[in-house]
Amino acid sequence: MLSEIPATNKMPSPVVLVREPISMVVSLRGCPGPGSRLTWSGDVEGDARLFAEKTIETFYFWTGVLMWLIHAGFMIYEAGVARQKNVLMTMMKNLLTCAVITPTFFLFGWWIYYAFQGGVVPDTGAAAVAALPWSEVMGPNLDDNITGVFWFAFLLFSFTTGSIMSGAVIERIRLGAYLLLAMILGSVVWILAAAWGWSSGAWLYTEYGFHDWGAGGCVHTVAAAFTLGVLLNLGPRIGKYDDQGRPLEIPPHNLPMTMLGLMLIFTGFYAFYAACAVFQVAEPGADPEPWRSIYGTPMTLGSLAFTVTMGFAGGAMGAFITSKGDPYWTISGGLAGMISIASGVDVYHPALGYLIGFAGGALAVFVGNRLERRGIDDAVGAIAVHGGAGVWSMLAMGLFASGYPQHEILSSLKGQLVGIAVMIGVGFVPGYLVSLVLDRSGLLRVSREVELAGLDVAELGIEGVVPAGVIGEKT
Amino acid sequence: MNSSPVSTWAEFDSRSTEAIYTFADQPATIHGICLLAAVVVVWFLVSAFRFDGHRDG
Fold first, then answer.
1. Which of A16, A329, A473, B17 meets the CB 3.0–4.6 Å disulfide criterion with A323?
2. Nearest to B22 among A297, A298, A352 (CB)
3. CA R_g for chain B
4. Which residue range forms the structural domain that includes residue A216?
5. Chain segment A25-41, per-residue pLDDT in tens
């Protein structure tokens, strides 16, 4: 086994492997220095296993880090969409989304994932108990390197659900109401849906063969359905509709900023999808383990490289055509394409992924326009992109990839339809009910005066975007 | 639509079938999907010219 030799200096330095009896030293190029050393014991099998475990730990840690790009992207994407008077408050919401979900996901979100995989009655088994915040593995533990890393990756998924909602409700929701809703969505609702449909013990999987490889259901559809419920109570921004109820254009204040934000989201989504792939170390003497889906079906990381990228390309092209070249919808279509292939990334042929992405991008534009005409003011098209493409993702899996064996059950259209119904219901009902209570209590929306003045000055006391040359008095 | 090239869990899990993508055991279907994808690309390129100069196309 590997044993650690104390560092001989205080400089941070890489792990250096010394393999005995070959005595081969492997160091990372450009990072000299003795630092911390791990020594191979000569038990090759044990050494290889430990090295693989360290690799897994490192892999998932960095998927979480790279997923922060999604939230940097959401932040500037939504800030670009907001009018200048609301830019700073929009960004504050994105920032505080991450802040409020983190401790609540630690306190009860992680436990929900392990406790409710069988349904509505909480499990009291070892896995659920180990996910309680006072469990021994929910903190630095020399015998468990992986729990914290997995928690971190799931946490970043939670941020994503909150960020999906945040853009839709900008420019009129109260900060406190938004943060309460984000906490409920990010630390309760989506993770309950994940327990039901995106875990090895999920009842939607074990009983219906539901297959949602990249969380098109529990992340995108659930967040979009929750958002729809909120928007029904929140109402449109002042000035969004004319006296006859016809929608008016509220253009992004900085479209290039919005497009850059989406490029960051695209980048972070590769890490999101990489975190959906499960890698385990084979038992001694067994064949090497492949990458697997969360359901345990074999797959490769190459499927992500092929299909996610092809889905993006198809989505951008599809949205370009149906929006007649509109820049905002074209780049949003790229994201819709990446979401459209989510449920079947592990099995789609790349050309099929391209076509599914194309249809998803085209569909997002159609859904977005329909919602707008029906009085739903979704400022960023989140329901169209995440909900439209999320539902399409699960449906496409049933239409084009049925018949895959998943332990004792096959993937099927019926299983996907059941999953779609559950995901929409799990998201919509709490979003609608909680926002209804907030609305009736007068806590959901800012006053008309605040909305007209802009949230930055009225609520934060500062302008987010200050015209050049303006000098104010220091207070 | 049943598109799985593997029919049993034992076959899938043992990885005795290498190409696991949809319709991998139906080459004609894959050819058709690739052809359709190519047609869509051409459609997109034509659209790019249509929307280049005016938005009413």
1. A329
2. A352
3. 19
4. 45-455
5. 333 333 333 334 445 55
